[in-house]
Amino acid sequence: MQTLAVDIATAFVDDAAAFVIGSGRALLRLAMVPIDRIANACDIAGVLTERRATFRMWQANRARAGHEGRRFSLLGRLSPFRHLAHLT
Fold first, then answer.
1. All residues at 6 or more sequence positions from 31 whose CB lies less than 8 Å from its CB, including other chains
2. In this predicted model, what pLDDT tens digit does every residue of 14-36 receive, in sequence order?
3. What is the C-alpha separation between 86 and 45, in angstroms, rounded?
4. How far is residue 58 CA from its own chain's centroid?
C-alpha cells in the first residue's frame, strides 16, 4: 500500500513539474514573438535563416552520430556559453 502511495505522489510531482516547465516555455514564447518579428523584419541578408538552417543541420548530425561515446560534463551543461557550441 505504501508503494502505491509513493507512486501516486511521484507521478503527481512529475506532472506538476512538467506543467510548470511547459507553462514557462509557453510564456517565454509569447514574450519573444514581438522580438522575433522585429528580428526577422530587420534580417535583410538572410543571416538568421542561414543560422537556423546550420543549427538544425548540426543538431541532426549530432543526434545521428549518437554522441560517439562522448560524455558531457556537468560544467559543460551549466556553462553560459553552451548555446553557442554550434558556432564555428
1. none
2. 999 999 999 999 999 999 999 98
3. 20
4. 14
pTM over 0.70: no
- Give the DSSP letter of residue 83: G
3-state DSSP assignment of residue 25: helix
pLDDT average, residue stretch 39-63: 88
Buried b vs exposed e over 26-60: b needs ≥16 C-beta within 10 Å? eeeeeeeeeeeeeeeeeeeeeeeeeeeeeeeeeee
Enter the DSSP assignment of 80: T
Nearest to 48 by CA among 62, 61, 35: 35
Q: Is the dihedral of CA 65, 60, 31, 20 positive or negative?
A: negative
Q: Phi/psi of residue 68, each to 5°?
A: 45, 45
